[in-house]
Design a protein that fits this description.
2 copies of one chain form a homodimer.
Chain A: E1 4-10, H1 18-29, E2 35-41, H2 44-49, E3 53-55, H3 61-68, H4 84-96, E4 99-106, H5 108-123, E5 129-134, H6 150-170, E6 174-179, H7 186-189, E7 204-206, H8 214-228, E8 231-236, H9 247-251, H10 270-283, E9 288-292, H11 296-299, H12 306-325, E10 330-338, E11 341-347, H13 349-352, H14 373-379
Parallel strand pairs in A: 1-2, 1-4, 4-5, 5-10, 6-8, 6-9, 7-8
Antiparallel strand pairs in A: 2-3, 10-11
Helix pairs in contact in A: 1-3, 1-12, 4-5, 8-10
Chain lengths: 405, 405
Amino acid sequence: MFSGKVVVAQGGGPTAVINQSMVGAVLESRKFRNVELVYGASHGLRGIVDEDFLDLTQETTHNLEMVAETPSSALGSTRDKPDLKYCQEIFKVLKAHKVGYFFYIGGNDSSDTVRIVSEEARRAEYGLRCVHIPKTIDNDLMVNDHTPGYPSAARFVAQSFMGANLDNRALPGVYIAVVMGRHAGFLTAASALGKKFPDDGPHLIYLPERVFDVDKFVEQVREYYTKHGRCVVAVSEGIHDSTGQPIITQLAEQVERDDHGNVQLSGTGALADLLVDLVKKRTGIKRVRGDTLGYLQRSFVGCVSDVDQREAREVGEKAVQFAMWEDRDGSVTIHRTGFYSVDYQFTELTEVAGKTRTMPDEFIAANGHDVTDAFLMYLRPLLGRGMPDAYRLRRNFVPKVLNRG
Amino acid sequence: MFSGKVVVAQGGGPTAVINQSMVGAVLESRKFRNVELVYGASHGLRGIVDEDFLDLTQETTHNLEMVAETPSSALGSTRDKPDLKYCQEIFKVLKAHKVGYFFYIGGNDSSDTVRIVSEEARRAEYGLRCVHIPKTIDNDLMVNDHTPGYPSAARFVAQSFMGANLDNRALPGVYIAVVMGRHAGFLTAASALGKKFPDDGPHLIYLPERVFDVDKFVEQVREYYTKHGRCVVAVSEGIHDSTGQPIITQLAEQVERDDHGNVQLSGTGALADLLVDLVKKRTGIKRVRGDTLGYLQRSFVGCVSDVDQREAREVGEKAVQFAMWEDRDGSVTIHRTGFYSVDYQFTELTEVAGKTRTMPDEFIAANGHDVTDAFLMYLRPLLGRGMPDAYRLRRNFVPKVLNRG
């Protein structure tokens, strides 16, 4: 075991349970005698480079427990995507502060950062344990059965569509809602978990794992609506044509790109609006409405899976235990061992770092616009206890008096 | 007392607790010996005209209780806005089915329908009691302290902004979210109930009760952002200029209008996107994001105020009691009698029908872009038990080692 300080940092988009992992790592670290102090980096890697550390050893356990139940990175996050030089800078600061353990909670980009920092430390023959703690609402990390943050976001999406379906049933029409997930459709697929009765929506689910054909989409909506008088549609923000071009670039006149050249998909209602216009114009259906679930999916307070909370806490704790007892760098990964139970393993960083997992074929219906029972079985236990349930009045029709015909 | 059948119908936009009122009216009706059968009209007034009734006397109490806890009009709703002829048609059907009691759950348009049907019955000297049961997420009914449906929608808005504020704190920038409410700002104002610490957002709140000046708005966002490094903004969909023109018509090239000539404000993310573009272009701030809370505000399953549930149930029950014991037509209204308690009165339909209540001046801050403590005191008890709470890490800063300057 090394001795020295511990640094915990949070990266990328916040989740509902990311603070569980942070608190798990902090409280577990404080049990080890070789840990001098536990620091939290303010706003992720940026805070390390700028030496903005909070001393979490001076924080009460009680307040840490309260923070654990609060969504969104309590330490602050960053969208900085570090290159080699940036990683070297990180290493320099960690060394200057006599840090022996670096825990970074984040997605696949974050695990790649951990990998580079780990290699820098090895090259410099400096005793630093670097561990990646998984989190992402997209559920797109390799090796993992699922990723902390996803179950709670999935629950939000399921509850949203459960309500949207009830609303659409009361006031029929076409309803289209856009869900986050650039490459992986796990979150959009979660919309199916709000279904109870056979005619419940979403009736059409479009995932980024399949090519999106605008004409086919319009026809499928028209067909469903004509037959059933209403139609609820779940669409991934990442839908694209056969060349990989995002559909939004086909439909919109202007699109915005981020620093990495990616088309901006979140933080705008454009895709939903464009699809709504398209359906209106091409089908002539009058009541067509669109929503973009937006940042609420990852930030809404008061919609969390207890399974997600527990696992997020455990990956934080396990990260510290693996770093101490296995004495190597790696990524904590989640593996399903029953219906429903999980175990944690310590995986090589290179197996997770910078890679993207998408939905396997067995989770996607053959028709390309629905999910399979295998997916429902996969996701249901992750949503946790107390999922709301929807009930209906029974159809005891009264005989007509005036319009007997 | 009249004898005959009871008809219950639900109108307008669904709410999280509208079925509580329906079930309250149904179960209370079934206690009266002069009530022969209890019918539910399928899809509101449209179901009456088409004679689409469900016999709720054949429904189990257990299932009614389950439906009561399910959001969105279980009987179905309609956007039909009846004229005199339509109301006469309603009356004709009610008479043919020997209906003695008509209970209509809805907003101000619905209360106006009840008023017209009531007048028709009187003119025809037909024994029909007509009662309006209040519901609207906009909270814009006259006479009432507040309206069932509003507290749950307000809670959703408060929890959304509580989360959006945490997200914005983790990844700073400008965040603008658009909230429902064409003329009344009560729902947008509810965004302030997610605040805990003095620097929590929303930092700017724009209500339809005040004139929206585009230039001032941009300046206020720029100023707040420059000073604090981030800015969370709540905007009502109904914001308008000094001539009453919706801001969306100023900013957008194309707007859609409904059958009543109203500009479409809901079911589109356009306003948020336009405000985001405006702030980006005029201030040069890079991270500017927008959301439109959309239909989730009224349909999300799993975010409900227990106070709202209880009151929605009671207005349904009281409607039946008033109809039976007071032997006149009217609207059930809610009146605050303590901190916190309410009582119900039976108000003349003409006092509620077709009128719109907006936020009183005492609830709006003098600066025009915030709410007052009086509003916080007004709304807080309505949100009910178990409101989530947000916690922060204490700022125990670590001295810098490298960048001592």
